Amino acid sequence: MATRGCKNSPDTFCYVCGYYIGKKQVLHKIVRGAKVWIAYRLYFGMPMGDQDKPWAPHVICGSCRSTLEGWLRGTGRAMPFAILRIWREPKNHHDDCYFCMIYVTKYRKVKGRQALQYPDIPSSRAPVPHDDSLPVPQPPKNMEDAMEISSEGSAGSSSHEMGDEDFVPRTTSEPHFPSQSELDDLIRDLGLTTSGAELLTSRMKEWNLLGEDCRTSVYRKRHEEFKIYYDFSDDMYYCKDVTGLFTALGLEHDPAEWRLFIDSSTRSLKAVLLHNGNKNPSLPLVHSVQKKENYHNVKQLLEKINYAEFKWDVCGDFKMLAFLLGLQGGYTKYSCFLCLWDSRADDDHYNKVHWPPRVELQPGMLNVLRQPLVDSKKVVLSPLHIKLGLIKQFVKALDFGGETFQEICLMFPKLSEAKLKGGIFVGPQVNKMLKSEKLERAMTKVEREAWCSFRDVVRGFLGNHKDPNYKEIVAKLIENFRKLGCQLRNNLDIAIRRADKTVAFFTINREEYNYKIEFIIGDTTNFTEITRNPTESIKNKFNKIITSINANMDSPKFPKLTGCHHRFVGRGESRYERQRRPYHQFHSQENVPLRRYYTSQQHREKLRIAVENMH
Fold it and tell me: Which has the closest alpha carbon to 117: 22, 21, 19, 10?
């Protein structure tokens, strides 16, 4: 099975019945020789095994313990089943892991654990109830007989407790010298590199612990078998025969069962084939230490591996998806490839649910710069990057002087302040935060509600399994995040401002912000306070033009500008230019946030309507 951890810990389930044990419910660790151990042995006719295995539970719930101990005392109590739940080592986390296939998000009370859906899979067989052929066993007459029977059974079953059913113990004390195939399995299980495998083989060879057929140099050429399927050109190693590679590995290549993952780092650009369900290993297709992450290199990468023939589903981060679909990078207005979601319409983000779908990706329109490299229907959004985006929004909405943010800083002391305030985390760090009870206790009521809804989305929507009520979970997340954002905006100690010449926002202490602004505009050599309305003359000239136009037109009639003036401090002058948008008004400035005049805004809006009607 894969080395990653299960969705739920095995020790949160009962070893006997397999039911989930909540945080508020009593659980007991299994101790050899205890009363429940003896009662289990006498009731089911076998000892508690697999207690040395990490894939089996090591606890028992209070209900099973009290029932077994009551039956041992002769109170007439009995278990509801004759054959308990059988545990075996799971093969994968997708469809053969009992702890990953159970949704515990709906668990609220102790009695509610029976309403959860418990699967019957090869790694965990469901209990069999009592019937005529499997009656309830009779308890021993006294505890002395129980101890005697238990000791007799445990002596002959020690090998069964500590091993698997198909385990055959060695009958000789002679040392065993591993063969080459056995050594290869050991190195594969340890995950050793080529140098590590050579070092281990050399040392064991020196100590005469290997068979005669073992060779140290065999790992230097273990890649020769698959080297013929790869080639190098244009500073890029790539697989030139994907079908041949699958055949050499003994795998069946069905493009619908594989997805192409493309990503880059500061050192390399790579592409890997991942199996849906992770039942088969990942296959590297492209690797380059010279190429950077851009549109032309990604296009060349797809041509090298002949993507047009196989057309796998493609996944990656949002930056990579922008390259694959030809979208414009940065903070654009229409950044989504599925719909025309407007990033500038802040008031509609939490209110508007249905946005117009994006019909096509045509270069030159709606923030599409280049021809798409893949079909938008083949793009798969990565749950990991969605989770990282959500945690980023959550952290950025926190009060940086509050207890919650300070607790996050204590959890990750090696992260810089810029990364912490920007909400830049990786997957393991997010999982650590989700498991921290101390972090949740430090939150306010609004923060805790948003955090709990985020945790439910991660477990019931972005995980390996989808909760049946995932729509309600996502809707609750949006509502709680909206409240969290409103809480931040209503905080009088924090100033939220839009950064200059971009759509990004930043938060800063209001006193610090006011001090810096007053210090900057206090420099009389560069800034002068304007006490009159500098747009008055522009307004008068424009109103004269409107009057002359309305005199020669029946309809429509253009209303005159009314204008409004606020205190204004700036460097430079207000002027107009025609660049992309007709008559776009702007202020020349140097790192000083300036207020726009309502006069200029009305000027631009009326001219925009007039220009659109003319064309």
Answer: 19
- CB 86 within 8 Å of CB 125: yes
Instruction: Identify the CA nearest to 284 among candidates 218, 230, 228, 232.
Output: 230
| Placement of tokens 């281990």 in the chain | 200
3-state per-residue secondary structure call for 108-120: CCCHHHHHCCCCC
8 A C-beta contact, residue 120 and residue 126: yes
Distance CA 106, CA 525 (A): 65
Q: Is 386:326 a contact under the CB 8 Å cutoff?
A: no
- Region 186-207: mean pLDDT is 87
Q: Round to whole Å and give the CA distance between 66 and 60.
A: 10
Tokens of 415: 């992260």
Distance (Å, whole) CA 476 – CA 456:
10
Mean of the pLDDT values across residues 399-419?
Answer: 89
pLDDT at 598: 47
Angle at 389 between CA 388 and CA 390, to 5 degrees: 90
Three-class SS of 428-454? HHHHHHHHCHHHHHCCCHHHHHHHHHH
CA 615 to CA 501: how far, in whole Å? 29
Q: What is residue 282's three-state secondary structure? A: coil
The per-residue pLDDT for 570 is: 43
Q: Which residue type, as a one-letter code, is found at position 515?
A: Y
- What's 313's DSSP letter? E
Please report, as a single letter, which amino acid is at residue 357.
P
CA distance 381 to 371: 20
Helices (H), 507-597: 510-521, 536-551
Tally of CB atoms within 10 A around 481: 20
The alpha carbon of residue 69 and the mean position of all alpha carbons in its chain are separated, in whole angstroms, by 44
Spatial CA neighbour of 589 closest among 524, 521, 496: 521
Helices (H), 191-339: 194-206, 224-227, 242-249, 295-304, 307-310, 318-325
| Beta strand 528-530 pairing with 59-61 | unpaired
Determine how many CB atoms are found less than 10 A away from the CB of residue 75.
12
Q: What is the pLDDT of residue 42?
A: 87
Structure tokens of 93?
Answer: 């986390």
Q: Among residues 492, 489, 497, 459, which one has the least CA distance to residue 477?
A: 459
User: What is the pLDDT at residue 411?
Assistant: 92
> What is the Cβ-side half-sphere exposure of residue 347, based on CA atoms within 13 angstroms?
0
Q: What is the DSSP letter of 508?
A: E
CA 221 – CA 86 distance, rounded (Å): 44
- The first and second tokens of residue 593, run together, are 């946030």
Beta strand 258-264 with 313-316: parallel, antiparallel or unpaired? parallel
How far is 602 from 245, CA to CA, in rounded Å? 64
516-565 tens-digit pLDDT: 878 877 777 777 766 666 677 777 888 888 888 888 877 667 777 765 54
Q: Is the separation of the CB atoms in 246 and 228 below 8 Å?
A: no
> 14 and 59 in contact (C-beta within 8 Å)?
yes
How far apart, in whole angstroms, are the C-alpha atoms of residue 9 and residue 21?
11
- 51 conformational bin, left if phi > 0, alpha if psi -120 to 50, beta if neither: alpha
Q: Select the highest-mean-pLDDT range: 140-154, 226-240, 491-505.
A: 226-240
Q: Which amino acid is at 474?
A: V
